[in-house]
Amino acid sequence: MLEEEYQPRRALPPHLRKAPEPEAPFAFEIRDATLRDLPDVREIYNYYVVNSVVTFDEDAMTLREWRSKFAYLHKLKMPFLVAVSPTGQVLGYALVSPWKQKRAYRFTVENSIYLRPAATGKGLGHALLEALIERSRAAGLKEILAVVADKGAEGSLRLHEAFGFTEIGRMGRVGYKFERWLGTVMLQKSLK
Ligand SMILES: CC(C)(COP(=O)(O)OP(=O)(O)OC[C@H]1O[C@@H](n2cnc3c(N)ncnc32)[C@H](O)[C@@H]1OP(=O)(O)O)[C@@H](O)C(=O)NCCC(=O)NCCS
């Protein structure tokens, strides 16, 4: 064989190849959010602000805005949870905030749940929402509302329905993002 004809073997025969590493299980811990989590929380939320219609925000939130929201929720003792990977990466968050400022609404909150795109579809949303509901109940809250975009948020609708949120109404053409009109679906769950 001439030297220039020599072709190095590109891959080992199957019986000599190393078995692929098993995929690490999807592990996470759910805990209260801290100030140090806010840069990650901001990054997660802003991804959906810029790339989706699941939030009607169009301007990325600043860290200062997140700090102020954190302080406000903390003062009201409203649950704000994060899910964290074994290496400490924030994978997602869930919180509740007052539905309206008028005093008679004080037992009613709206929830918000956002996961890092790579952490979706693996049951984390389910675990976070379950923890959020439990914490909201323990905080003495009575009603949780979810306001979900009527397009592009099928995962969120499915997730809320799985926890017994029921549709209580729809608003059509109340949002305009990415050059199209959007509506909202409102869902409610009683914590009694
Ligand atoms: C919505 C979100 C929190 C759901 O969390 P998740 O971890 O992806 O969902 P889970 O894996 O726990 O699945 C929960 C349920 O939703 C369903 N689901 C998840 N993604 C879905 C999708 N894209 N379309 C349809 N159903 C979906 C699952 O099948 C599951 O249903 P089941 O309980 O009947 O089996 C997450 O996908 C997310 O952060 N999405 C982007 C941000 C967002 O939409 N936030 C909500 C704003 S209102």
Structure description:
The chain is elongated. It has helices at residues 38-51, 63-75, 124-138, 154-162, and strands at 29-32, 80-84, 90-98, 108-115, 143-149, 166-177, 180-190. Strands 1-2-3-4-5-7-6 form a seven-stranded mixed beta sheet, with helices on both faces. Helix content is 27%, strand content 29%. Bound molecules: coenzyme A (COA). Residues 48, 54, 113-115, 120-126, 148, 153-156, 158-159, 162 line the site of coenzyme A.
- What is the mean predicted local confidence, pLDDT? 94
Strands side by side in the biggest sheet: 1-2-3-4-5-7-6
Give the terminus-to-terminus CA distance.
83 Å
Give the overall shape, derived from the CA principal axes. Answer: elongated
Q: How are helices and strands ordered from N to C?
A: EHHEEEHEHEE
Radius of gyration: 22 Å
Q: How much helix is in the residues?
A: 25-40%
- Major sheet details: 7 strands, mixed
- Unreliable stretches: none
